[in-house]
Amino acid sequence: MKLGFLASHNGSNMQAIIEACKTGALQATPAVVISNNAESGALARAKRESIPSYHLSSKTHPSPERLDRAILDALLAHQVDIVILAGYMKKLGELTLKRFEGAILNIHPALLPKFGGQGMYGIHVHEAVLAAGEHETGVTIHLVTEEYDSGAIIGQENVPVMPGDTPKSLQERVLKTEHAYFPKVLQKIESGEMAIPGYKMPTSQCPDR
Ligand code: GAR
């Protein structure tokens, strides 16, 4: 199972998945990393890990259609099976969404459908959770569609909100769960325990053969 990552910032979720691949907990290959941010931690991590990486953004491709094509070409050139949005703050273009329909996963730091949609990313999500007086938040992994945070949910893990939490302390607790949970979900997809519409296990690996 070849993984293509899109990440805008630190890339700690991507790193957690790479580590799971290295230990063998996840039987998958990180094949390519794409970032819209030339200075991102994600691109620096990719270089350290010797994973092919590309800065593709409106700076490198001012035309949205050409940017979409360039992202798709990079994913196809590295024979990606599953696309992982690991803190990717841009919308994907039509071509990429269509070619990888049902095989693009996003991680969101709250229990969708609560606290999702435009403007709900990173620390803003945790601020909104605290402002709403929630006692529980969590992590959601969902399929990606053309709307932010709107595709089918494939997994969720709860995280408690503690008295005295600040957005930062809550973010740290949720991020820890993200790092453990995302590789687990991918492992379930890889082993056939969980199905997503856009990925078919190679038949030689099917559990019932
Ligand atoms: C993660 O908390 C992820 O859930 C969030 O951005 C962070 C990226 O951290 N994504 C969103 O808010 C998407 N709406 P990372 O770059 O260290 O993995």
Describe the structure.
This protein folds into two domains: 1-101, Formyl transferase, N-terminal domain (Rossmann fold), CATH 3.40.50.170; 107-143 and 154-196, 3-Layer(aba) Sandwich (Rossmann fold). The model has no long low-confidence stretch (mean pLDDT 95). The protein is globular and about 50 Å long. Helix 1 runs parallel beside helix 6 and helix 5 (123-131) crosses helix 6. It has six helices and seven strands; from the N terminus they run βαβαβαβαβαββα. It has 209 residues and is an alpha/beta fold. Residues 7, 9-13, 86-87, 107-109, 121-122, 125, 175, 178 line the site of glycinamide ribonucleotide.
Can you summarize this structure?
By secondary structure, this protein is α/β, with parallel strands linked by helices.
Instruction: Classify the secondary structure makeup into a structural class.
Output: alpha/beta
How many beta strands in the DSSP annotation?
7
The CATH class of the largest domain is identified as Alpha Beta
Tally of separate helices: 6
CATH homologous superfamily grouping of the largest domain: Formyl transferase, N-terminal domain
pLDDT below 50 for ≥5 consecutive residues: which ranges? none
How do the SSEs run, as a string of H and E? EHEHEHEHEHEEH
- What's the helical proportion of residues? 25-40%
Number of domains: 2
Ends distance: 18 Å
Shape: globular
* Beta-strand residue percentage: 15-25%
Kindly report the CATH topology of the largest domain.
Answer: Rossmann fold
* Sheet with the most strands, sense and barrel status: 7 strands, mixed
Q: Gyration radius, to the nearest Å?
A: 17 Å
Order of strands side by side in the largest beta sheet?
3-2-1-4-5-6-7
Average pLDDT figure? 95
Compounds present? glycinamide ribonucleotide
